[in-house]
Write the C-alpha cells for this entry.
Amino acid sequence: MANSAAVFDNKKLSKSTPKTPAEIASIAVYWLMRAAVVFNVVMLFFPGSNPARITGMIHKNMSLFSCGVSYDSIVANFGRAFRQEWVQESTFKSLNVCALFIIVSVVIAAAGGCMSLGNNKLKKTGLVFSAVAGIMETAMIFWLKGLYNQVVDQAYASDKIDKVEPMFQNISYIYMAMGIVYIVCAIVNFFLVPKAAADEKMEMDPKYQLFLMMLPVIALAFVFSYLPLYGWRYAFYDYKSGQDLTADNFVGFKWFTELFKNQATKKDIVNVLKNTLAMSGLGIATSWIPMAFAVFLSEIKNTRFRRFVQTFTTIPNFISWVIVYALALAIFSTDGFINTMINSMLDEGATKATTNYLMSNEHMWLKMLAWGLWKGTGWSAIIYIAAISGIDQGLYEAATVDGAGRFAKMWYITIPELIPTFCVLLLMSIANILSNGMDQYYVFSNAMNRENIQVLDLYVYNLGIGNGLIPMSTVVGMVKSIISVILLFGANSVSKAVRGESIV
Amino acid sequence: MKENVLGSVSDKKKNKIQLTTGDIIFNIINYAFFAIFTISCIFPFYYIFINTISATEYVNRGAITLIPKGLTISNYVSMGNVDAIWSSVFITFVRTFLGTALMVFASSIAGYLVTKKEMWGRKFWYRFLVITMYFNAGLIPWYLNMAMLGLTDTFAAYIIPGIVSPYNIILVKTYVESIPGEIEESAFMDGASYWTIYRKIIWPLSKPILATIAIFGAVGHWNSFQDSLILNANTPELFTLQHRLYIYLNQSSNLGAMVASGTSSSDSTVLANMANTKVIQYTISMVTIIPILCVYPFMQRYFEKGLMLGAVKG
C-alpha cells in the first residue's frame, strides 16, 4: 500500500501544483463536515445533549449513548408508569432502537469523515457514507418526534401529564441540522471532488493513516484527562448534588474568597497545609535514605545475602496501602502481635497490655513517614543500586592504591556518582510537594488522628465526596493543580539552569 | 577447610582482604541492619499467615506469636463460602486481565505510532499525551466527569480510564526507537502496511517492554482501591478486593454491620461461625496478598529494566 517513497511523492505533489478554486472549496466543505462529525460524536456522550430524553422520567444523567446501548437504564424509573399504563412499554423499546440508530448514523458519519482523508476514490466512497448518515440521522429525529407525540397522547389518555412530563429537547434540532449538513456537504463535494481514475485503488496518505490509527488513543486521553477540566466550572456555582448549573446559582469567585474569609474553613486549610507540607517535607528530608541504603547494601560482599535483602525489601512496594493497613493492624492493634507478645511474657493474672497503637494521635507525621519508608525504601534503592553497578571499578582500585578507606571511597566516589540521579528525584519530589496521594492517609485515618493526618488530597476527598461540598472542594483542587504546575516548571527551570537538562 | 584445598589462590585472596577490627565492626553492623530491615519487611506477612493456618482457639487465647499452632485450613475453606468475597475476587481478576490487556495493546500501538515522523501532527499529539502526566484537573472534577459520562456504578469505570497511560506509551516509544530502522524499512519496501509492520515486527520485538508494562499495569489494577471507593460506592457487587478488605478491616468488630453492608444472609452465618473477627481480617488479607506474592518472582526479572527505562525520558 504505502511506502516511504509515496510519502515523498505526495508532499512534492501537493506543494508543486497550485490548487484550483474547486479544490479549495472542497477542502473547506470537508473541514466543515469533519468539525460537525467531531461535535456530533462529543454530543453523543453528554447527558445535557440527549434528544432521546422525551420524558422527565428518563434520568437526566443519561446520555444519548447510554440510551442507545441500555434499555434497562432508560426505563429504570418506569416501574409504576408501566404498571399503571401511563405510558406504553413499546414506545420506549422503539426509543431505544431509535437512539441506537442515531448512534449508528453518527458512526457512519465518522467513517465518512475519516475516508475524506483518502484519495479521490476513497473520498467518493466516503461521500456515500456521509450522505447515508445524514439521511439516517434526519429520519431518526422525525421518528423521535413521532415517539414524543405518542408519549404525549398516552400521557393525556391516562391523565398523568404532570407525572410523565413529556418534553421534546431542542437539541434534537441540532442533531437534525447535523444530518442536513452531512447531506449538503456530500452533495456539494460530489461535484467538487474530481472523478477517480477507473483503475485507481482506495488509498490514503500515510500521514493520515497514522493519524487515524492514533485517533482512538487521542480521544480517550481527551475524554479522561482534558474533559475533567470542564468540571472546573463547578467552582463558580453554588452547586448542590442533583441540581443544575444555572445563571441563578452562579456565584463568581465566592468560593475563592470564602477560602480566606470563612474562619472555620481557613482553620481547616491551615491545618491541612501544615500536615501536607510537614509530611512532604519529612519525605524530602529523608530522601537520601534510599541512596544510603543502596550504598551500604553494595558494601555487603555476600551476593546471596544481598540478593535476598533486595528481593524482600522490594515486596512492600507492590502491595496496596490497604494491605499495609491490614499488616499494621496485625502488628499494632489491640490484639495484634506486639500486645500478644507482651502478654505472653507477663505473669498469670497481670493486667493485659491492650494499647492500640494505631488509634493514638501522637507523632502521626513520623508514623506516616515510617510507613512510607518501610514501603518505599527497598524499591527506591533499586535505581541507585543499578547506578552503583555502573560505576567504573578502576576508580575504586585507584583510590585503594592511594590508600583510601571504605568510607573515603563511599564519600568521594560512590556518592558523587549518584548525586545527579538524586537531584532529579529530589526536584521531582519538590514539584510534588502538595500531592502526597490519598490512599495512605485515607486507610490510616480514624476519629482519633484525623486532625494530624488529613493532607490536601484527603481533605479534597473528605470535603467533596464525604461532605458533598462539590464547589469548595473543586476550588481547593483547582488551586492545588495550578500551584503544582508552577512548582513543576520552577523545578524544571532550576534543573535546566544547574544541570543543563530538563526533568520533564 | 576450603582454604587448604584451594591453596595458593585462597592465600592470595586472604592477603588482599585484610580485615581490620574496624572492618569487622562495620560488617557486623551492616549485616545486622539489613537483616533486621528485611525481617521487618517479611515478618508482618508471616505473622498474618501463621494466624490464618492456626486453630481459632489458639488465636483467641493470644497463643500465636512466632509459630503456628493446631494447623488447619478451615479458615480458608470458610472464606470460600462467603459469596461477597468471591464476587470481589472475580471482579478484581477480570479487571486486572481485561484492563491490563487493553492498556498494553493501546500503549504498544500508540508507542509505535508516535515514533513515525510522517504522522499528521505527530509532535502536537505526542505532547498532548505527555502533558497529561504532569497536570490533572483534580479528584472532584475527575469524579464529576466520570459521573457525566455515566461511568459511575459500572464495571467499565475500572477499565476504560486506564487504557491510555502516557508513561507506558513513552516507555514503548523509547524501546521501539532502539529497534534498528532497517528491519522496518525492508518491510516497507516489500509493501507491508503500517498495521502489518506493527503486528509482524514491532509487536514481537517489543515483547520485553510490553511484559514490563503488563506486570506493572496488572499490579496497579490488582491494588487499585480509589476507583472502587469513589465511583462505585453504591454498588457493593462491583467492589474490588482491596475495597472489600478495607471494609472488613474497619467494620469487622461489628459483624452485623458488615453483613448489612452488602453480604448476603448465608454469608453472615459463615462469618459468625468463624467467630474471631481478627481471623476473618487476616484470611481475606492473605487472599489479597497471595496473588501478588505469586507473580512477584516473575516481576523481579522485569522491574529493574522498567525502572531504568523510566529514567530515560521520551
Remarks:
- Residues 256-323+363-499 of chain A form a domain with the MetI-like fold fold (CATH 1.10.3720.10).
- The first helix of chain A runs from residue 4 to 16.
- Confidence is low (pLDDT under 50) at residues 1-15 of chain A.
- The CA atoms of residues 127 and 190 of chain A lie 7 Å apart.
